[in-house]
Amino acid sequence: MADLLDLTIAELRRFLDKGEITATELTGLYLDRIGSVDGKVRAYVTVLEEGALEQAAKADKIIKQGDASPLTGIPMGIKDVICTEGVPTTCSSKMLKDFRPPFNATVMERLNGQGAIMLGKLNMDEFAMGSSTENSAFFATRNPWDLNRIPGGSSGGSAAAVSARMCVASLGSDTGGSIRQPASNCGVVGLKPTYGLVSRYGLVAFASSLDQIGPITRCVEDAAILLEAVAGHDNRDSTSLPRPVPMLRDSCREGLRGIRVGIPAEYFIDGVQEEVVSEIKNGLKVMQEMGAELVDISLPHTEYAIATYYIIATAEASSNLSRYDGVKYGFRAVNYSNLMEMYRETRAQGFGPEVKRRIMLGTYCLSAGYYDAFYKKASQVRTLIIEDFKKAFEECDIIASPVAPTTAFKIGEKVRDPLQMYLSDIFTIPVNLAGIPGMSMPCGFDRKGLPVGIQLMAGHLREGILFRAAYSLEKGLGLDRVWPLN
Ligand code: GLN
Questions:
Q1: pLDDT tens digits, residue range 220-255?
Q2: Which of 43, 179, 322, 481 sits a CA distance of 20 to 30 A from 207?
Q3: What is the pLDDT of residue 137?
Q4: Which residue from 398, 381, 373, 395 is spatially nearest to 433, judged by alpha carbons?
Q5: Contact between residue 110 and residue 229 where contact means Cβ atoms under 8 Å apart
Q6: Quick one: which atom of ligand 1 is closest to the CA of 179?
Q7: pLDDT class for 3, splitting at 50, 70, 90?
Q8: How far apart are CA 251 and CA 221, in angstroms?
Q9: E strand or H helix at 423, and its extent?
């Protein structure tokens, strides 16, 4: 049955609708797969065997009646930062270890509305802070292509589970690269949509001006299906854009001819792994052969992106995370003699070191006397980065670049050096700062056999052209659908 596990959402739809397999059988297959490989990969924080089978039985009824939606009966995994009613939503933190939200995130309502199946909740860096999933308070997730390496982060569980075929597709969240970088490391497709396209209601907040939910899938078309399912206006998120859901699957078929692909000089710099550069160049050549035009462009403020991000993201995080005080919900310290001590002990024991580092940095950046020098300055530089992209998109339709400077690194390699860890987001962060869509998709392999991803970016709300280019490139590259851990 291994090949059934390889099928994409669109392929499974046909199998399910023809009655060649039931949602219950498919769910059973995935639960078995989790049982046999998750001991090694450790992508899941919670597996919902009973709940998944109940949902599958319901999906089978809907399919029998001929009322199936694109995701009816499709087994999925959800990053543990997205609120799921009655189901633990831990953010891989001791702080929320026993937290069961009393409501569903909007994206969950939409998936449930389509009859998708939730197999479980996926591991991540604590509160989505990190690039390797090593900051999970519970355990590190491993890269299915090489179990001694990181899957990337912070949505490491989401990318590893899709790549190891422990779910057909998953949802992640991306504040500075957390969907795209793990997708690249695990050889799958990951999309951070335009800011405001997907509702953040029920997404546990990290940095509210940057956070977006997005799909992680085995192919570009699946990402389109999943994005179409979860996107669209929601009046419970004030940043949600009042726009109709884009028809992305149609865009996929439009071909590359005439598309201008920008190559930013600032993204092909010293320190980027040689094979990453050569695989991306090959991807560019393939696009050119398919009728795209390559143009050299410049994003001159790129070098300030990381510094800008680590001021804005930590400032917003320090404010968002003030809610974990031992009173409202989540963990509370056991021993204390007064209210202040209760707060202090709760936060000292409940948060891990990276989260504390970010709260301290962010609080400092926002404090009286420093606000102008840090937060205000960073906001001004952010505007310059937005302008860079606007200018660039006058000369091109999409921009292509590496996703990360290297392929997956070894577990433990960067944990003691936060700055090195932060640098792995150098090419993904500008996209969040500008609020534009960015996709990571497989482009090749390095000499060790580790996946290399290419990042495609487009202007605000131009997901259509992004999917058009990505779908064609995927076909043009014709990478064999080989998956790890067979
Ligand atoms: N790795 C980046 C960070 O640590 C981005 C995280 C994210 O996108 N959630 O902040």
A1: 999 999 999 999 999 999 999 999 888 999 999 999
A2: 43
A3: 98
A4: 381
A5: yes
A6: 8
A7: confident
A8: 10
A9: helix 418-423
| Long-range contacts of the stretch 265-272 (C-beta < 8 A, 24+) | 265/296, 265/297, 265/298, 266/298, 266/299, 266/300, 266/302, 266/303, 267/299, 267/302, 267/401, 267/402, 267/427, 268/401, 268/402, 271/405, 272/402, 272/405, 272/406
H or E element at residue 455: strand 451-458
Record: fold of 4-253+437-477: Amidase signature (AS) enzymes (3.90.1300)
Model pLDDT for residues 184-224, shown as the tens digit of each residue = 999 999 999 999 999 999 999 999 999 999 999 999 999 99
Alpha-carbon dihedral sign for residues 317, 362, 158, 246? positive
Which residue reads 């633990």 in tokens? 88
Enumerate the β-bridge partners of residue 190. 216, 440
pLDDT at residue 465 is higher than 80: yes
For ligand 1, residues with CB inside 6 Å are: 128-131, 154, 174-178, 206, 313, 425
Query: What residue spans define the domains of the chain?
Result: 4-253+437-477
Give per-residue pLDDT as tens, 156-188: 999 999 999 999 999 999 999 999 999 999 999
Q: Name the catalytic one among 132, 178, 401, 424.
A: 178
| pLDDT score, position 5 | 96
| In contact, 9 and 74? CB cutoff 8 Å | yes
Q: Pick the catalytic residue from 132, 154, 173, 251.
A: 154
Q: Is 178 a catalytic residue?
A: yes
The widest CA-to-CA distance across the chain, in whole angstroms, is 71
Phi (first) and psi of residue 403, to 5 degrees = -85, -45
Give nearest CA residue, ligand 1 atom 10.
Answer: 129
Beta bridge partners of 295: 262
Question: Tokens 């409202």 belong to which residue?
Answer: 328
Q: Which helix H or strand E contains 77, and what residues bound it? A: strand 75-79
Residue 278 annotated to the active site = no
State the DSSP string of 136-181: -SS----BTTBTTB---SSSHHHHHHHHTTSSSEEEEEESSSTTHH
18 to each of 107, 167, 225, 286, how far by Cα in Å? 28, 21, 19, 36
**What size, in residues, is the chain?**
486
Question: What are the residues whose beta carbons fall under 8 Å from the beta carbon of 128, sequence distance 6 or more?
Answer: 81, 91, 154, 155, 173, 175, 178, 204, 206, 211
424 is catalytic: no
Range name among 175-179, 389-393, 421-425 with the lowest pLDDT average: 421-425
